[in-house]
Each structure stands twice: as C-alpha cells, then as structure tokens.
C-alpha cells in the first residue's frame, strides 16, 4: 500500500466530505488522518490516506476531480515516503500562545518569526477577526511545540516585546493549563 497526502479546496457546500471519502472508499483507500475547516466561504481539507500501489498522485487527483466534478473542487496529492515521520528536533512541550489586539498586515509573520528564531514549531493556527466596532477583539491562537531546551524566559520576553511593538497582548500557557481554563 502507498501513503498519500491529499489537499482539497473549494467553495463550501454540503456533501464535500461525503463525496470525496466515497471515492476513496470505492478505490480501496483508508483514511489515516484528516483535518478540515472552513475559512469564510472556502472549504479546506487535508487527508493522509493509504491505498493501492497502482495509484499515482496525478491519477488520484484526476479520479477525485472527475468523480466530484459537480462540486468544482481543487485537489493536490503527493506520495509520502516511509521515512517522512513527524518533525521532532528534540523533546518538546505543547504550549498555546494567544495574541489579542488590532488587526493589521504582518501580525502572523512577525509572531512566527520570533517562534522560528527559537526553533518552535507551529502545529495549529487559528484566528478570529471579530473587530467590527472594536478592533481590539481580534484573537490569534497558536498551538506550538517548544523544545525543552529553549529558555522559556527569553522566548516569553521576545514574544512580549514583539507584541508590544505591534500593539498586541501576548500570553503563553502550557497546553494543559490552557485547555483546563478554556475547556476545549
């Protein structure tokens, strides 16, 4: 069996997941991992699947496009090699970083540049731009893996300094604490 990663993009509507997974099922694919979200009006999904050795990435995309043509979705697939495991630079702790403040261009780039400087891996990013009449009500939530050998004090200071320069309130919490407080 071959392992593939597939991305699916297009205008959101009911039945997308049903149609895509039905095609995969009919072609003897097994879904190992999946993530799906809607951003504004756009559907996005990433699937890791295993399937027949005869299948190639281009064939898989063509098959999905043809069989779900009424949905007008866009597909990309590539084969995953056996040695493509998860990123693990070292032992890591899971943290959640939240930023609050006015929306403006470059916020994500600036915060993630600080994280990259400390070899911190972003595993999930969510943003809620709900400013409207209150532009300070914008929130970004970064789920991150921080190597245990990172100086937490220096990282926290760097994030706070960058946040202050951008007009953002920045908080960092261990994931267990964040989940207990916010009941995710």
UniProtKB/TrEMBL annotation:
Residues 5-85, 96-173 form the ACT domain. It comes from the Bacteria. PROSITE patterns: ACT. Coiled coil: none annotated. This is ACT domain-containing protein. PANTHER family: UPF0237 PROTEIN MJ1558 (PTHR34875:SF6). It comes from Desulfatitalea alkaliphila. InterPro entries: ACT-like_dom_sf, ACT_dom, UPF0237/GcvR_regulator.
